[in-house]
Amino acid sequence: MPASPRTARVINDRLALRLLQQEGPLTAGQLKQLTGLSRPTVADLVDRLTASGLIAVVGESGEQRRGPNAKLYGIVADRAQLAALDVRTEGVSVLVSDLLGRVLAEASVPIEDDAGTGPAVDRAVALVERVAKEAGADRLHTVGIGAPGLIDPAGGELRETTGLPEWHRRLVAALQERFPAARVRVENETNLAALAEQRDGAARDRDTFVLLWLGMGIGAAVVLDGTLRRGASGGAGEIGFLPVPGTAKVPSATDCDGGFHSLAGAAAVVALAAGHGVTADVPAHEPHAAALVRTAVARCGGDPAAGRFLDALADRIALGAAAVVSVLDPGCLVLAGEIGRAGGDALAARVRDRLTRMSPLPTEVRPTLLGGSAVLRGALLTARERAQEELFPAAGR
After folding, report:
1. Going by CATH, does the domain composed of 79-191+376-391 fall within 3.30.420.40?
2. What is the C-alpha separation between 117 and 191, in angstroms, rounded?
């Protein structure tokens, strides 16, 4: 059944806007060439998008030709301002961007363990307010939040989770109250890191891969055929609960102690390093486990103890990774989180070697390319996509 004229306009407008987002400013002739649409159809959509305030003339093509140069059209980036948050147990990072994702302002604040729920929420909300003001954003269109824990796939809310501070759950409601016109969306931090790595990082060339988050906690994000898979209850990738050999007990429904988390989480990495005699000077901004792994990587060429520590850590990571590979056959694993970032190529190569011996399924193992910025970038990507989904189709109505 052919599309109605209205539906065709929406499709064409969206196609043009996506091209302008990806390629930057274009002339009507370039839009015709890239879209394959007729000249009158392109002229109509340019007039329609200009009248809607979504695009504007931003310059001229500069081509050497007779007559006036062709007008360059670009997306009106300040049509909407977006906020992205990376919410951790120890603090919050915020950035505000325009509709094209250009960062206008950003900042972070620490939040102490004993701050209390109310003061912690107030401090985080005040940070968002301050960054938005510095960015010149009178109102926020969309707020994307990355946080540890389970996200309810039905309501999109952060579920109550043992071990995470209560202010995480309260923050979402507080931000919605402070910015009532904004669309506030929360997503698991590991899922956001995977989306960012797929768009701009280590998985740019992969439609199917798994990101292993190695940090204070352990998690995974599953991307299959280009789509992030959250699972029936939002818990796909909760591999901290995965039963593995080498622990003293098995995990429970409320406690991942005894699961993969007990072998490869930050506390386990610190204990493993101590057992191998590996120490490190820990900068104020770096988690202890990450500092130990980073130091071991730097020393492993001339320090046998550092090499043995990395080998033992790779043995542990490979246990959980092998289970993921055997079930999903993703073809690619990205080691992320502060420990994956600190381990870099040295740790990824060790895990790859072990998987090659443990599994017949060929699997690349790559370190993160985005490091600590992955969650914020993923939150910004989801905020942009949600804003554009709402704004872009409106032009064709």
Report:
1. yes
2. 25
Owner of token pair 């989180």: 337
pLDDT, tens digit, 9 for 90 and up, residues 52-88: 888 899 888 765 554 456 889 998 888 889 999 999 8
- Looking at the chain, the number of H-run helices and the number of E-run strands are 12, 13
Q: Beta strand 209-214 with 332-336: parallel, antiparallel or unpaired? A: parallel
The rounded distance, in Å, linking the Cα atoms of 171 and 189 is 15
Ramachandran region, residue 344 (left: φ > 0; alpha: ψ -120 to 50; beta: rest)? left
The ranges of the chain annotated as CATH 1.10.10.10 are: 5-75
Residues paired with 92 in a beta bridge: 87, 109
Q: Mention every residue, 6+ apart, whose C-beta is less than 8 A from residue 22.
A: none
For domain 202-369, give the fold: Nucleotidyltransferase; domain 5 (3.30.420)
Pair of tokens at residue 272? 């493993």
Give the Cα separation of 132 and 154 in Å (integer). 29
- Give the model confidence (pLDDT) of 166-206 as tens digits: 888 889 899 999 999 999 999 999 999 999 999 999 999 99
Q: For strands 183-188 and 209-214, give the pairing.
A: unpaired
pLDDT, tens only, 43-58: 999 999 999 888 899 8
CB atoms within 10 A of CB 53: 12
State how far the alpha carbon of 145 is from the alpha carbons of 159, 272, 336, in Å.
14, 33, 18
What pLDDT, in 10s, does the model give residues 353-367?
Answer: 999 999 999 999 999
* Cβ 164 vs Cβ 116: under 8 Å: no
CATH class of 5-75: mainly alpha
Cite the residue boundaries of each domain of the chain with CATH code 3.30.420.40: 79-191+376-391, 202-369
Token pair listed for 312: 């033992």
Distance of CA 54 to the CA centre of its chain: 26
Residue 168: predicted pLDDT: 85
Residue 242 is classified by DSSP as: -
Rounded-to-integer distance, Cα 277 and Cα 360, Å: 34
Q: How far is CA 261 from CA 108, 251, 286, 292, 393, in A?
A: 28, 9, 20, 18, 44
pTM (global) more than 0.70:
yes
DSSP state of 243: B
* Interatomic CA distance for residues 327 and 316, integer angstroms: 18
The secondary structure of residue 161, as a DSSP letter, is -
